[in-house]
Fold these 4 entries.
Entry 1:
Amino acid sequence: MDIFTFLVENREILKPIYGLLIGLICFIIVLRVDKIFRLSLHQGIRYFRNAFVFYGIAFLVRYILGALINFGYLSGDYFNLVTLVFKYFLIMAGFFLLQSLIWKRVEGPNIDCRSSLVNPRIFIFYIMSFVIIFLDYFWKTHYFIFLSQIIIFTMASGVSLINYYNGKKEHGFLKFYFLAMILSLMAWILNAVAALFEWNQMIILIVSGINVITFLLFLYGVVYTTRLR
Amino acid sequence: MAKKRERLEVIRDILKVIQNSRNIKPTRLLYASNLSPQMFKDYVDELLNKKFVIAEENDGKRTFSLTKKGQDFLQEYRVIENFVDNFGL
């Protein structure tokens, strides 16, 4: 039995492990980033932290609750709700990640917001997320979330590429951050391709692999840059 | 012309001056911070609110000194700066 066949045949057992792994990575990232945010109150760090809070919740909801539904511990009636919640947190996470890169240009450097979850600038993200989820739900598709994330990660890749060119001599991780953005973009494009081919399992597996590598890259960057004394 | 300081850099500079001078008077801190009076007041109010700095009365004169939280910030500043620069935030 080749590894691909093994992974496909055992995917229902591997999915919660995958979700737990991503959730754990996000948890570690949030812990480390929150510590430096509380000292600095830097808005970009805040949005970056929020992105991984939302990613962690998204993956845990989708893959842990999804497994409970699959194995009969939760009613199948909840599957649509789980999918909606997953999409919402995933879309918001993408918005926060992009906002962490562009907030100075959008908000100005001296903004003082008490809450990054309840403020007028983030309110538009909530509206856009609900619109995307509604459109997907109404048309019984996933292409609106795919399109939104492809746009977000194209923009994020562009910004991180500019940051890399501006700071490559002094800051070594910028190239890995650009790589992480490109991998995320690829994953979303492949997701859309997989959907076109009736959720081709090989492509889904590749997307999962890319996601793990991407989150590990983020984790590496956070650990690498926050260990300096 | 000198590059405009980022918010974190200004906070670092103010805290470093206070750290080096122990109990420093507001006027001396204002000159050392290289800020306009209004901006200086805004930053000092923020630092007092966030408990990086405390204001004390000594012989009827107001002075500023660094709290433990302010000292922690200065220690962690390089880490914070490194993180922000490496992620382009």
Note: Chain A touches chain B through 34 residues (CB under 8 Å).
Entry 2:
Amino acid sequence: MNALQRLLHPENTAIAMNVTGTSLCAAAGIAAAPGLAAATGATAIPFITAAGNLVGLTILSATPIGWFLGTAAAAGAIGYGAIKLAECIGGDLRESRIDSERRNRPVPPSENEVKNIVHHAHRFLGEEDQTRLAEQLRTGGVGIEEARAALRECERHA
Amino acid sequence: MKFDPKTNPLLALTLASGDARITREEVIDYLLEQGIPHHLAYRIAGLLHVVIRVGDATIRIGRVILHQMLEFLRKNPGMAIGAALGAVFGMLSFSVPLIGSFIGPLLTAIGAFIGAAIGHATDRDQLKNSFPFVVVDAAAEFFSWLVETVKAITAEFRVTAAQFA
């Protein structure tokens, strides 16, 4: 499997889409910063100007009291973004693993399929083993295709 | 494990592989608990991937062997584990057609361990119930159904052995 095929694999596509979602979550957290800063009356944070620019804070005015409050608010908002980021990543990985397990889980056979196979197998099985086969088909010990292939071989050599 | 004589040997082995619901981790954990060296435990667990192909059908023979091996070891706790493993794999490699090529290399690795295990047991006077011949006889009796079943299949069907990744 080459790199492109791996990238296009449904599971990887799902992860890529979830990563996009994660970025949006982080952006949402960071976007809350200016609002929170404005709500506390502080919009100038000189010592985190670079960081403020990075996260999109608008520097409007400078008041000493506002700096402290603003710093706390911005830190809170960034912290909120970080928490959302962690939650999103955790959730993404969890969901992706569950999806993968769901995809790989064999579909349980219908009762008709089980009866059909046991009916065809009765010539080659003792009575107790017929019951065992039915039980194993139901519980996944023996797969439907596995049983069919074995039966085909038995019939071929009968 | 006994099978109804009316049951076709191929289906008997399919049912046995369905019964053998063991995982690689289970095999490794058990062997490590018994004091088997890591490299040996991992190599033995590799047998889980050995299959025989009977026409279109695939039989997970390695899974059956490992399941039976664990049963044998659990039912004979007094045996020195090295001697028991040696007896099981030695007997299987000589008696079960096709899979000897997969088991043979294991014997080399187990050989050194058997020597150490028996030597250690002799030192501690624990060899009363695990004299090698007794162990081999016990293993031969325990695995007789498997040997007979695989022999019947190879006589009746066209069989190849393989190892899937």
Note: DSSP finds seven helices and no strands in chain A.
Entry 3:
Amino acid sequence: MTVLSKTLGFALAVAAATAAFAAAASLAVGARSLSAGNAPVTSCGIATLSATRTVDNSGTVTKVTVAGIPVACNGETLSLTLVDSNGAVLASVSAPISGTTAAFSALGSVSAPSLAGYRFAVMGA
Amino acid sequence: MTRLLVLLAIGLSAATATAGFAATLSVSSWHLWAGRQTLTKSVTPCTVTGAAADTFVDQASPTSPNSGGATIDALADSGSQRWAFLRFDLSTCSIPPTGGADSATLRLYMTKAPARTFTLTLARVLGAWSTTLTWNGAQSLSYAAATATAPSGTTAGWVTFTVTGDVDQFIHGLTTNNGWAVTASGSTQNANKDLIQFASSSAAANKPQLVVDYEK
């Protein structure tokens, strides 16, 4: 009986300790914990990005180069969307960032006259 | 019984611990930055009338320059070929290097048409030249692959070449603007019948034009 009591006591202690740890961990992912915003989320320091494009002789965009990427963004993902004057998507590409510029050349057949703007998104951890 | 309780305890611990780590993994700190850039297009095209430099070279007079006349010539006949050269100054359009050409057209007014249609070929010149260029000098220049071709037709009038890609490269500074050479090819008869002449920048009217739609 003594052995049984000791064993049971040990088991309950371990279970209680683990349960407490688990409960604490569970609290960290609860909706209220996330909304508290205790974990700081920082960007890689982008102020603005700008793009230039080249065209072939038929006026089709052959390459878009995005400039102004901070070095701190290396390894993150840059998404580039080409839009027309109505905001309709003409092409959309993305790639990991390596360097302070990023060049995209697989853009389909976007005509330069129809290109009215760029949308950028940089996502990272 | 003792073994049962020990196993129960370990199982409970493992189960809760697993749940705890799984929950921790779902917590991350991804961030997203988003921005946009709106392009400004030319309201009206920039038209450059008159080349900054134009001339032609003549195989029959290989050491003589031919600039300053009212025409620049193209001739396909072997032994007496003529090639026309033009270079435009794009600075009057004030297009920043961050902009680019949406479309660009080179227009030449043919004042003398050939008796038969010839193919006119426009190629970017890869080296510097001046209006004192001669046939011999033109042989030492390099030329890019043909940018555009156009049929001459057999009546006087405007001949157009699409030069969007070349002008875009000039704007971006990706290649030096040394202008273009225009040559003729086709079935020849004789120099008189085959001669093609365009109004030069020295002509009173119908000077060469470069028309550029662009983004700033």
Note: The first helix of chain B runs from residue 2 to 25.
Entry 4:
Amino acid sequence: MNWGSAAEFFAMGGYAGYVWGAFAVVAACMIVEPFVVRARRREALRRLRQLTSAAQGAHNEATA
Amino acid sequence: MTQGTTPGIVNWLKFSSPQTFYPLAGKMVPWFAVAAAILAAVGLYIAFFVAPTDFQQGDSYRIIFVHVPASWMSMFIYIVMAAWAGIGLVLNTRLSSMMASALAPTGAMFAFLSLWTGALWGRPTWGAYWVWDARLTSELILFFLYLGFMALQAAIDDPRRADKAGAVLALVGVVNVPIIYFSVKWWNTLHQGASVSMTRAPTMAATMFTGMIVMAFAFWVYSIAVALVRVRAIILERERHSGWAQNLQEAPAT
């Protein structure tokens, strides 16, 4: 164990701004990105549903 | 056609169709996501509670546990992205090009994080957030190559033409990756060499190295999980007029 107390841990030997600044931005990006890609897929799925319901009926010209 | 080849090859080729790959990718995502979370937890524990304070750099060196994995991933993803783009260009396989497009934003993010964490490490160790040094400049160029790839693809309406144009850009840009990697040997640079951590006292090098490798694996499986979700979105966006996509029986959530 490197740290005598929680305060010591957060102080990072005087480099708190640099260390936490680095880790916070990495963590933020890697937490936000999965939500962004999931939202993108959900949106694609939603548009697909719209298209499918619009295509229902006598509409058969959708080709690959 | 492929009837004459071995069953193994046929089975494997089957997954090169977006229609077959889409559900497979969906099944793989949770495994990679869980692996990423576990590896990140272990890696962060080692980074902050096992690895000792550096006798020269103090605790500022702990940035290494995100800086090196982010930098490695930024280069590795670029090579994988260019390879998929190249395969898509040569074999005209749609899914390969979609994989390349799915990797670009994550690669760009890691290139940015490499620069960001590097700046915050450079300030306490060199006294500067940024220097126009070979390593830093070539990494910045990598970041711009990712942005260029994405901007070029976004600017072309026809997806197949966008794939081809992007592939040419990605393949030309590959030359930058060895330049980044060897820049610390080829030029006189402020950036430390690749083996600095190995030359310290053995116990220290061992825990530091373990932490770095575990974090690198975490970033790696994270990238796979995110790229798979993104490629699924891209498949839906591009194949939405095809019959299989419209017949997709899938819950709207997740």
Note: The longest helix of chain B spans residues 202-238.
